[in-house]
Amino acid sequence: MAEEKKLFKVKIDNISVEVEPGTTILNAARQIGGDVVPPAMCYYSKLQGSGGKCRTCLVKVTKGSDADPRPMPKLVASCRTTVMDGMEVGNITSPEVQDARKGVVEFLLLNHPLDCPVCDQAGECDLQNLSYEHGAEATRYEFKRRTFDKIDIGDKIQLHMTRCILCYRCVFTADQLTEKREHGILGRGDASEISTYIHQSLDNNFIGNVIDVCPVGALTDKTFRFKNRVWFLKPVDAHRHCEDPKCCGKTVLWMRGDEVFRVTARKDKYGEVEDFICDTCRFDKKEKSDWIIEGPRKIDRHSVISQGHYVNTVKPKDPLVEVLDGRQPKLLFDIHTTSEVNRPEIDLSKIDGPAHSDDFNK
Ligand code: SF4
Ligand code: FES
């Protein structure tokens, strides 16, 4: 008879869970779920070797194991530390951990440009969320922030090196998913940067996934850049039969009306991609007719993305149309003015429905 696998009993924030030997503290916490799960900015369960870079997942081991109950002397990275039988861990119950996390966030933000108002990642940025939860309201840093020479890494992906937190996720993605890796981290210490070394573009069929794995706005989609804010768009699940056998063809379309603004992979509750998608699905299939729409994507209700999406609401009657004898108010106002941003040949007063990004200059 097969021997029954022995499970390790672990307590995280006084909640017990039994996990297989070799499980990390972070993954044990994910089995419990909820607030006890430490944040992770560099660990990514689908990428081998990830973790151990950002220190946001630090926890306190108050009891090493049943065999050796001594606490660990320092806080440990939960994404890289495996559990022992009888281990006890403090995360949200440990003031020391909360204080250290606040310090880590302050460090991550030291050189960050804080340009959320113009960053395409705003609203779905792990660093933004983390700083809301654990950040100090002001910085103590008095020196000049790091700057980098701008490099062009191709027509689909935009690199903003000043926003990068050097988590290495994109490097592992390029290494493990694409056929040839063209970028990596160059330089050391303060001068480390994501680069292609001799400026060249990233153009493998799966390289677009670096956009999805990047926890900040350092790598963004050039085909979506500045076109809309994510909280104005409606995410819907969709799929298509993709010819690339490595691509699952299951995506999220970010739509406004019938216009598909961008296509991303589907992400789980920890912000990790469920299944990677190819660049053809991501960048070249921007028509609604390219996709079979499954329905609205479920978004965490605390996310800013869900703020504009009301369900089961009754639209109030518009009294203006009644007063105007059924005439549409928009026909009474001339909202069209010509400026640098709109195309003069398109009269914004006369188009059907909301304006489309094609109605404006690129
Ligand atoms: S560009 Fe993004 S994914 Fe790549 S190392 Fe920087 S923060 Fe991480
Ligand atoms: S998630 Fe553990 S060190 Fe970054």
Automatic annotation (TrEMBL):
Residues 96-135 form the 4Fe-4S His(Cys)3-ligated-type domain. Signal peptide: none annotated. This is (2Fe-2S)-binding protein. The keyword Metal-binding applies. Residues 8-95 form the 2Fe-2S ferredoxin-type domain. Keywords: 4Fe-4S, Iron, Iron-sulfur, Metal-binding. The keyword Iron applies.
